[in-house]
Predict the structure.
Amino acid sequence: MTERQSIHGQWSSRLVFILAATGSAVGLGNVWKFPYITGENGGGAFVIVYLLCIAVVGIPIMMAEIMLGRRGRQSPINTMASLSQEEGANRNWSLVGWSGVLAGFFILSYYSVIAGWALAYVVRASVGEFNGLDAGGVQDLFNGLVGDPERLLAWHTLFMLMSMFVVAKGVKAGLEKAVTFLMPALFVLLVVLVGYAMNTGYFIQGVEFLFKADFNKLIYSCQVVNDLEQCEVSGSPLLVAMGHAFFTLSLGMGAIMVYGSYMPKKASIAGSAILIAVLDTLVALVAGMAIFPIVFANGLEPAAGPGLIFQTLPIAFGAMPGGQFFGTLFFVLLVFAAWSSAISLIEPAVAWLVENRNMTRIRAAAWIGLTTWVLGLGTVFSFNLWSEFKLFDKTFFDLLDYLTANIMLPLGGVLIAVFSGWLMKRESSRDEFAMPSGGYHLWWYLIRYLSPLAVVVVFLHAIGIL
Ligand code: PFF
């Protein structure tokens, strides 16, 4: 096969690809979502399942996505269409690309609202609003923000504009450089927070919560109602852990595939995927080690939900020396981490519009931004005006989050695994990976059997069949 070229350009090196893909993977999922879902699902056992999913499902599927992207060199929709033709499979495999585009819309619509909270907190930290606040004060501050739809809307709008701006300029232009030093800085700051957490006197308790496994908690979901703990059998913690492995690695929707399509031919796919997954996991675990000791030291509830980091970290910043500076810096870096993820959520759709509708990147970004912004209103109102409207016991935001992370991304991932393991010829995948045969065989067994099977088993468990 003669090698295809992407019309959108190429990363300047393997390092740039790794930075961009890590920028996509590391985001709100690591710092905001991982701690709160770990808190809601009982800690240690949940974390172990999540780590297992990263290893046996996440890394092989990430390799598959990069491999398909680099071979197809187009938007995920067109990549899947071309490759299926080339491999003699049904052209409808392009539906994987379409479902990814839809998932990207859905995710960005709420992602932008939460990133808006981080933006709001940059301002709050910088004017010293956290100084000396106790847990109650910080909670009031948080409730004041999410209870006010106008403020949420303003921050959501600002974050969408920021994301559209970068996407319109092209992924290579600005963010590449920013990511190079911002990501390490975020990591250093998280480590500083762990240092603070060590001095709370509750560090061990926090770390135990994160790593000590009580597997009953995976089967029973418990809630404290009127001071009594009520437990029921639930299939959901396993599904949430697996869904989060997809979410945090940006898998199952074409984001990594489209980044792979800009990857230079010679770069190693396996090495890159492993490195990205390890870095992403480290950030999440360090974030957890910073947050849970603060939760316990202040008598807060680990299962507080989406507000968890916004109700805990300000206590630390309000109490530590230099907290005003560190707090501002932390939320600035969190915004950047979210920013570099947001652009990858819409890149698959933008690439398709440029390829098939002959649009400029600017127009494509504007259209997608506007639609996503409108959908985001649903999430804005989920925390105030519509907080009582529930379907399946979930608000609009909860529904979107559940549908995308726990259903659409794993489903997309299974289809990618089936396509690359069963339908693609072995010579093709082998040629694209160009890696030692031991590694290739390991990937091949994982992608054909273990990865899709694990996802299917977790699905069946969640709907009560297993
Ligand atoms: N991985 C991102 C995070 O952890 O915040 C979220 C995300 C980005 C999910 C891109 C999916 C995606 F395609």
Observations:
- Strands lie at 220-225, 228-233.
- The chain has one domain: 14-114+164-288+342-462.
- The first helix runs from residue 14 to 25.
